[in-house]
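>> received
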Amino acid sequence: MKAKRLLTLATFLKVAVPTERFHLARWGNDAECSTAGCAIGWACQIPSFKKAGLSLRSWLPKGQLILTPAYGVYQSWDAVTAFFDISNRAALFLFDEYSYDITRPPTPEDVAKRIQQFVRDGGMRDGQPTTMP
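>> returned
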């Protein structure tokens, strides 16, 4: 687990991402995440993460903009797990909309708190390791 990267993202979510421009259901609406995006879409805007190789890739199949995170040869959830060195289970726990309370949309603060707790717990969830592939 790359705890420093996870905590950098948690801090960024708390201080830089407006709730009205945060939505876990999509990576982002455009390559610069200038509309709404999820935690990973926003992560792709952090300068140190960009320098490390995390980005949003876009293409236009059938005229519809599709975005996905990319890191090296990895795309989508594989990019997330590789960049943060966490399991797919951990990535979904931290960043998937369906792992949060469904009665209200998760906020940047909700995701940041979960990330911080996850790091404090050493990558454990319910007593189970989630950082193992």
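>> The chain has a mean pLDDT of 86.
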